[in-house]
Amino acid sequence: MIGGPRGLLEQEVSKPRSVGRTLARLAGYFRPFWLAMAAVLLLMIVNAWVQVITPALLGQAVDCYLTPAFTPEMGSAATEAAGAPARTTATACWLGSVPPGAATEEYIAGLGRLVLFLVALFVAGSVTGGLMFFLMGWAGQHVLRSLQVAVFDRLHELTLAYYTRNESGDLMSRITNDTSTIQQAISFALVQVLSGVLLLVWIAWNMLALNWVYALFSLSVIPFMAVATIWFSGQARQAFRITRQEIGNVNAELEEGISGVREVQAFSREATNIESFRQSNAANRDANIRAVAFTSALAPTLEALGYVAIAIVAGIGGIFLLRGQSLGGATVTLGLIVAFIGYVQRFNQPIAQISVLWTNIQSAIAGAERIFDLLDEVPEIQEKLDARSMPEIQGRVVMEHVGAEYKPGEPVLKDINLVAEPGQTIAIVGPTGAGKTTLVNLLPRFYDVTQGAVKIDGIDVRDVTLASLRQQIGVVLQDTFLFSDTVMNNIRYGRPQATDEEVIAAARLARANEFIERLPQGYQTVLGERGGGLSQGQRQLLAIARAALSNPRLLILDEATSSVDTRTERQIQAALDQLLMGRTSFVIAHRLSTIRNADQVLVLVGGDIIEQGTHEELLAKQGFYYKLYMSQFKRQEQVTQATPGQNGDMSSTPVRVD
Fold first, then answer.
1. Radius of gyration, CA atoms only, the chain
2. Are the beta carbons of 343 and 217 closer than 8 angstroms?
3. Which of 36, 107, 573, 575 shows a CA-CA span of 20 to 30 A to 637?
C-alpha cells in the first residue's frame, strides 16, 4: 500500500473546490522548469513502454523458441515427411523466428537474444524510472521553495488586522503541512498516478489488439476491484477522521501537561494528568488500529482478485488451447496465454496505487488552494502608486477628525483630534477597550483610518511608503518579543548596520548593560524562544535598548517600564527621559510617573477623547481623570511612597488602564 496508513492520515483533508483551475495555476510554477518536465514525460512514456512490451516478449519466447523446439509437429523434418500437419503460431517474432526443422542450437540462440533484450529492457526501465523521479523531485523542490517564499513574503505584507482574524497555527500549517502535502504529490504521487493511468490504458489497448474477447474475460474482475477499492478507501478515510481528532486530543493534553507542569506539580496532580493522558493515548491507539485494519485489508483483497483474474486467463486460455479452438477469431497459443498472464499482473498493480495516490493528490490540491487563498489575500494597507519616501521626521503629529473601525459599523475611534508638537510626550490613559492601542497603531499605519487623516510634519501617512515611514518610528511594546538569537543581534534588530560599540552604548543607555555582562557569553549569549531565560523586566530593557539604537524621531511606548520593579523603573526613567528628549512620543501609560512628566494627557473612553490637558489641569477639572486618579493612581502613589522599591503597577486596582 503506497504511503501506508500514516500517509492516508496525512491525506485526509477537505476536498479541493476546483481541481482544474488549481492544477493550472500550480503548473504555472513549473513553467521555468519546462525542459525537466518534458524529460519526465518522455521518460514516463519509455518506462510504460518497457512494462507493456515485457509480457509480449515473454509470449514470443514461448511461441517463437520454446514451443516449436519441443513440439513434434513443428521443427521436425521427419515428422513433416511422414505427413503430420504442422502447427503455426499467430505470434509475431520481433527478434526473428527460427525456421521449422532448425537445430536446437538455433532455438537456444534465438532465446538467448530475447533474454538479453529483456535484461536490457529491465535495466532501461530501472534507469528511466529513477531518472524520472529524480527530475520530478528536483523540479518539485524548486516549486516548493518558490511557494514557501511566496507565502512567507505574503505573510509579511499582510496587516495586523489579518492576524487578528486568523490563528497563527493555521497560517503555520499552510507553510508547513500544506506545502509538505504538495511536495509528496508533485515529487511522487503525481508521477505514479499519471504513469499508472498511462500503463493501464496501454495494457488494455494491447490486450484488446491481441484478442479482444480474451481481453474482456481477462478484465472481468476490474469492476470488483473498483468496488473493493472505493469501499475500503472510504472506510479508511472515515476511520482516519477519527484518528485526527484523537491525535489532536493527545497533542492538546501533551501541550497542557508541558506548559502547566509547574501548576501540576504544585497541586500534586501528576497521577491524574498521567491517567488522563493514558486514556487519550488509548483512544488514539484504538482509532488507529481500526484505520490500519481497513488500509491493510485493501491490498490483500486486490491481490486475491488479481489471482482470480490470472486463474480466468489461464483457465479459459488453457481450455481453448487444448481444444484447438479459436477465440475471438484468432488462434490461442501458449505464448498468448503467457502474455495475457503478464498483462493481467501488470494491470492489477497500478489500481491500488492510483486509488491511494489520487487521494494524496486531492489532498495536495486542497492544500494548494489554501496556499493560493493566502497568496490572493489583498493587504488592507496599500501603498499608493505615487507614494514617496518620508522625509526626515521632525515630530509634529496631527490627527484630524480621525475615525477607525475593525468591523464596518463598529467604530473603535470617533472623531479624534489632537496636535503633538515636536519633542512632546503624549500620555494616553483610559479603561480597557477604549481604543488606546488602536490610536497609536495609526501612526506607523499598522491600521488605516476610516475617516479623517493622520499627518506627520504636514504629510498624510498614506502618501508615503511604509518602509520610509516605519523606519523613523520606534515601538516598545509591553509584551516584548525577542528572537532566538544573540543579545547583540536582538538589540541590533532595528538597525542591522550598527557597530558593536553602538549596540553596547544603547544597552548602557537602557541600563541593560549590567545584567547582559552577567550572562554566560555576555552580548553573544543566544536567547531562548521569545527571550526564554530572561525576566520580563530584562526583556523590556532589551526592547528599550533596541529602540534607543534605532534612534527614531517618533516613539510609541506601551508603558515600557510596566514590567519592572520600582527600583529598576527609577534607573531607566532617566534613560527614558534622555531617549525621549527632542523626540515626539506617544505613551500608553500605566504609571503615575509617566503621566506626570507628559506634556499632554489624553483620556480615552469608548473611542472618544473626553479630556485632554496636563496632569495638573485634568486634576483641577475633577472629571473622569480625577476619579481615575483618586481610585487608582493616588493609591499607586501612596504605595510607592510607603514602600519604596516595590512595584507600583495597577494590576490589582479595580479599573485597569492598558
1. 38
2. no
3. 575
CA distance linking residue 77 with residue 73, whole number of Å: 9
* More confident of the two residues 225 and 570: 225
Mean pLDDT of 563-580: 65
pLDDT tens by residue, 462-500: 999 988 888 888 888 766 778 888 888 888 887 888 888
Considering the domain architecture, whether residues 414 and 341 belong to the same structural domain is answered as: no
**Mean of pLDDT values over 229-255:** 73
Whether 300 contacts 242, CB under 8 Å: no
Establish if 209 belongs to a structural domain: yes
Query: Which comes out higher in pLDDT, residue 406 or 460?
Result: 460
Asked whether residue 60 falls in the same domain as residue 203, the answer is: yes
Burial class of residue 627, CB neighbours in 10 A (0-12, 13-18, 19+)? exposed
Residues 356 and 396 reside in one and the same domain: no
Q: Are strands 326-327 and 410-420 parallel, antiparallel or unpaired?
A: unpaired
List, as one string, the DSSP characters of 96-120: -PPPTT--HHHHHHHHHHHHHHHHH
193 and 88 share a domain? yes
Answer yes or no: are the C-beta atoms of 646 and 639 closer than 8 Å. Answer: yes
Tell me, yes or no, whether 427 lies in a domain. Answer: yes
The CATH number assigned to the domain holding 246 equals: 1.20.1560.10
Q: What is the dihedral angle through the alpha carbons of 421, 425, 426, 431, rounded to the nearest 10 degrees?
A: 180
| Residue 239 forms part of a structural domain | yes
Distance CA 542, CA 510 (A): 8
Tens digit of pLDDT for each residue in 391-404? 988 889 999 999 98
β-strand partners of 399: 418, 454
Would you say residue 95 has pLDDT above 90? no
Does the pLDDT value for residue 644 go beyond 80? Answer: no
3-state secondary structure 329-350: CEECCHHHHHHHHHHHHHHHHH
CA distances, 322 to each of 215, 283, 307, 333, 337 (Å): 19, 59, 22, 9, 12
pLDDT of residue 272: 83
**Is the per-residue pLDDT at 647 higher than 90?**
no
Contact present, 438 and 375 (Cβ < 8 Å): no
**167 pLDDT more than 70:** no
C-alpha cell belonging to residue 182: 504538495
Q: What is the DSSP string of 424-481?
A: -EEEEE-BTTSSHHHHHHTTTTSS--SEEEEEETTEEGGGB-HHHHHTTEEEE-SS--
Closest CA to 556 of 545, 547, 567: 547
- Cβ contact 5:292 at 8 Å: yes
* pLDDT at residue 201 is higher than 60: yes
| Secondary structure (3-state) at 562 | coil
CATH of the domain at 607: 3.40.50.300
C-alpha cell at 236: 479508511
433 and 293 belong to one structural domain: no
Q: Is 18 exposed, middle or buried (0-12, 13-18, 19+ CB in 10 A)?
A: exposed
| Rounded distance between C-alpha atoms, residue 474 and residue 551, angstroms | 8
Q: What is the chain's percent helix, strand, coil content, to nearest 5? A: 65, 10, 25
* Mean pLDDT estimate for the chain: 79
Cell 510607603 locates to: 642
List the grid coordinates of 179.
506545502
